[in-house]
Amino acid sequence: MDIGLSTAQREWVAEVREFLDAAFGREERDEVRRWGREGRHTRIRAFRNEVATRGWLALTWPPELGGLGRTTVEQVLLMDEFAYHGAPPIDMTAHSVAPTILRCGTPQEQARWLPGIRNGDVEFAIGYSEPEAGSDLANLSTSARLDGDHWVINGEKIWNTGAEYASHEWLACRTDPELPRHRGISLFTVPLDAPGISIDQLPTWLGPNTNIVRFSDVRVPADSLFGERGAGWRYVVTALDFERVAIGLTGELRRLIDDLVTAVGSDPPPGTSGDAALIRRDLAELMVQVDLARLLNYRAAWMIDQGLVPAAEASMTKVRTTELYAQLSDAAMRLLGPAGTLSVSGPLGPAGDLAQRMYRASPYLRFGGGTNEIQRGIIAQLGYGLPRS
Amino acid sequence: MEFGFTAEQEMLRETARRFLAETWPTAMARKTRLPLGTGHSPALLAQMAELGWLGLALPADAGGAGGTVVDLLVVSEEAGRALVPLTLHLTATGAAMLSGAPGSGPARLLLPGVLRGDRVLTVGARLASASPLDGGGFRLDGGLGVVPYAAGEAGHLLVAASTDGQHGAADVLAAFRCDDPAVRAEPGCTFAGDPFAMVTLEGAVAGREAIVATGKAAATILRRCSAQATVLLCADMIGGAGAVLDLTVRYVCERVQFRRPLGSFQAVQHHIADMATALDAARLAVHQAASGLAAGSETARSETAREVAIAAVACADTVPWLTRTAHQLHGAAGYVTEHDLYLWSERAKVIETLLGDRDDHLAAVAAPVAGALAPGAETTAVRPRSAGEDHR
User: Fold this and answer.
1) Cys bridge to A116: A122, A215, B212, B304, which one at CB 3.0-4.6 A?
2) How far is A330 from chain B (nearest CA, A)?
3) For chain A, how big is the Rg over CA atoms in Å?
């Protein structure tokens, strides 16, 4: 056991930082500030291309499939640095869908999808939730019916973030309504420009839009079915485990603490006590929590590298980090006082912006990717064998 | 001990809730936020003045109804529920300060307009430093921190100052026009769309006509009004939290997942129970502080100061947390901006920062035991004092 970073891992972090210092400069920051990290404007697009050119969207794949053969821990270290720098994140396609294709797809499917994901041309929007299938995801009713050598898809997906710019939909459909709920679900890859798809944007509190995507007699070829018919639930759950590890990243939390030290360090913001001893204690308490969250996150990534399935452990990192987003953003806004509520480029600089962003992000992180209540159920049931009600 | 409101106060609440539901739906609150609006509605303020809300706690000889802070609290709770612009609160606070010196120039000049609902006041958060001028009056300097509406809709700004510098005790209370060139207001906007400015006074001259009070009178007015303002901001948060809890209860009863209403799940019920309990506790703390202020007993003064601090800590801890829990129970349905929930989440956070520093409130709560915990320790002022800090 040696939980610290190895020399190679430290060098890797340094390499990522060096890249970010060069590629994520003032203009990129301005664009992120204006359009959000999830935007797809000129500079952000160029930044993402550069990330793809380095092969960093295929970081953990084996070299024979075009990857760099690095570990999931190294991927998490990279994503942490991106988050710390406020850079556009590695998207769900790279960190959740691609590993699922690697783990569950046939060689043909891997050959079909991985090159496009690697160079950034293929980006999936995740089509799981529906108006009547949220926490109860297995209740989904979007149907795919085989008609000759085509599937015909009908239904409605909601909270479909990224659908307005993604190339494809990673779509969970019901193919066998007569089977038990979890066994009647299959997974499809559907180009978002297929006839019969309509997308309506829904603005969210954080800023970026999410979408309602409607499928009306959308015909796709038979090979749009991913993996095995009826195994869709397993693929969804696999991708969700990867996603929860990504939600559990702690780079942004570390960043806020550093920004807070800068903002409250010299002159106390107006309307705050400015008592250095109390501030130091508050920050120390938070630093303890951030370190615990970081350990849970790295542990889950390490399990993936060991070929283990971090089911309860992925839920633990997701719950712990997202609860800490709430706690830390509250503490930050308290330490910054009224001036910290002033919008973009307020007098307190980056700390105020980041505290507000995290205050708004924390609800979404706590319910997104499976609510924390559902995660606690997973931890108790999968981790400790408690009975399902 | 009496936890209930009077029949008149219940009627006031009913009237306020009905009036605001009709006049001020959330669509109006949305349109009023920056950058779409100015953060203020002159028409609404005029109507509220007509209903007598601005004069509720002013003495009869100042044109008011002679009520107490508990009457104002009823209105503040409803204002928070309905997302009424903060100009109501600020103007009422300014008016309370003016009515403490009814004969003063600013009171005579400004109170009639306040009662008509066509004057908007705001109040500086920090003390300025005051230097006496030859021939009477003072020159005021110093940063006032974040002052709501000072670069926007407010016509006049009330400032407390100390002739002993920004770390001293308040002994001057003066009113300035917000467009006075010596009032340097850097306009800003909170993330909830309120026009808050960073204000600095640079040689602001308060002639005799601009002085509300000096000496002990100024300190007394400031102490009472700051405590009252804190309690009424708390009441605003409590009203908003009540609206949020109602929305949430409705949603979890209607929303069906796993073939049952969400509200039938134990995890969901526990959240609702925790929200309800914490809200009741915080509301009771606010009511306790308000009734203490209304009684106005000089012998119970330090007890009341503690109660105000307890209310502030309770609201700061409870209300933003409660809105976040409401988000958790709504999931994505409450996260799209077409849903109203985020309006209260943002307001709660902005008002929390206006309550003052939590550490200062905790120090006030611990004041009776401070000597026992650190015998002989002297507290030293290391920073500009907050206006009204000495009420603690």
Assistant:
1) A122
2) 8
3) 21
Distances (CA, A) of A381 to A241, A272, A385, B204, B287: 15, 45, 5, 67, 44
Reported as type and span, the H/E element at residue A46 is: helix A42-53
Distance (Å, whole) CA A299 – CA A106: 29
Identify whether the C-beta of residue B47 lies closer than 8 Å to the C-beta of residue B314. no
- DSSP annotation of A94 reads I
Cis amide linkage into residue B35, ω under 30° from 0: yes
Neighbours of B179 (CB within 10 A): 12
Chain B residue with Cα closest to A370: B331
B173: enclosing H helix or E strand: strand B172-177
Cα–chain-centroid distance for residue A243?
Answer: 5
Cβ-based contacts of B191 with chain A (< 8 Å): 341-343, 356, 360
What is the ipTM metric for this complex? Answer: 0.94
Dihedral of alpha carbons B49, B52, B57, B58, sign: positive
Interface size A-B, in CB pairs within 8 Å, comes to 139
Asked if pLDDT for residue B379 goes beyond 70, the answer is no
- Calculate how close chain B gets to A294, using CA atoms only, in Å: 23
Q: How far apart are CA A388 and CA A382, in angstroms?
A: 10
Decide: A182 and A131 in contact? Cβ < 8 Å: no
Find the mean pLDDT for residues B146-150: 96
Q: What is the pLDDT of residues B214-267, one digit of tens each?
A: 999 999 999 999 999 999 999 999 999 999 999 999 999 999 999 999 999 999
Q: Confirm if A185 and A140 have CB atoms less than 8 A apart.
A: yes
Q: What share of chain B is helix, strand, coil (3-state, %, to 5)?
A: 55, 15, 30
Q: Are B356 and B312 in contact (CB under 8 A)?
A: yes
